[in-house]
Amino acid sequence: MVKISPDLKGSLAIGALAWALAFAGCAGPTPGPDKQFAGELQGAVSGAGAGAVTGFQVGAGTGPGAAVGAGVGAVAGGIRGLMQDQEEQDLLGLAAATREQRRVAVAHEILEDQYRRRLEMHPTREIYPADLFFYGDELKLRRDAVPLVHELARLNKTRLPWSRLAVVVYAQAADKNSEFAKKLVNARSKQIVNELVSGGLEPRRLEARGVLVDAPLLVDPADNPGRYNQAVELLPLDR
Questions:
Q1: Is the C or the N end of the chain the one with fewer CB within 10 Å?
Q2: Which 8-state DSSP code applies to residue 218?
Q3: Alpha helical stretches, state H, 122-178
Q4: Which helix or strand (DSSP H or E) is residue 10 part of?
């Protein structure tokens, strides 16, 4: 049986530690939540280093003391790194939940303002300016409009539950035969219907419609007079 001298054991432990440090240095930082246990590796390496120093102190510089210290330090450092990773994940989750709650709060503010205007101007109809849902003449729903549509879905789950709802998108067009205008209103109405379904409304209750008009659907004296050149209406079909 080959015996390994204490000095050789110490050299092997230090060599292993140096290799781990070099490996961690080459790996480089891994940003964001997909760190693949980077905190554990870094904690283990730093813990091994601290443990090796402690081992040298306890063992008066002998190899066995350094090896034991490095092993204990690596375990402790790995645990600390894992805890740091978990804390980061928890913070990221909390930040995401906070952002979502903020988006819902903004949707509530918009709806409160719109319902107030509705009582003043068109109490029997649920009409919204299209710019709450779309930018300019874009066909795709605004990203920040998704919480608003989901909130409308939540509100309409129990509102007239026996009735179907038509999502009617209006656009003012000088030429009623304009292919672009027809595509605009039809695509937009389908976008909103799809997002209402994602928000929890049953597809059987929804119908998409696109309508071209000669003039703004309504004029709000306290707003831009041309704002309702493009509009969205939720229309109950079974009263």
A1: N
A2: -
A3: 146-156
A4: helix 6-27
Average pLDDT over residues 199-215: 95
Strands 206-213 and 165-172: parallel
Residue whose tokens read 């590796």: 41
What pLDDT, in 10s, does the model give residues 150-205? 999 999 998 888 899 999 999 999 898 999 999 999 999 999 999 999 999 999 99
Crossing angle of helices 38-58 and 6-27, rounded to 10° = 150
pLDDT category at 212 given cuts 50, 70, 90 is: very high
- Residues 96 and 67: their CA atoms lie apart, in Å, by 43
For the chain, the average pLDDT equals 75
What are the residues whose beta carbons fall under 8 Å from the beta carbon of 1, sequence distance 6 or more?
Answer: none
Token pair of 152 as six digits: 């409308």
Q: What angle do CA 186, 190, 196 make, to 5 degrees?
A: 150
Average pLDDT score over residue span 112-133: 88
Amino acid code (one letter) for 164: R
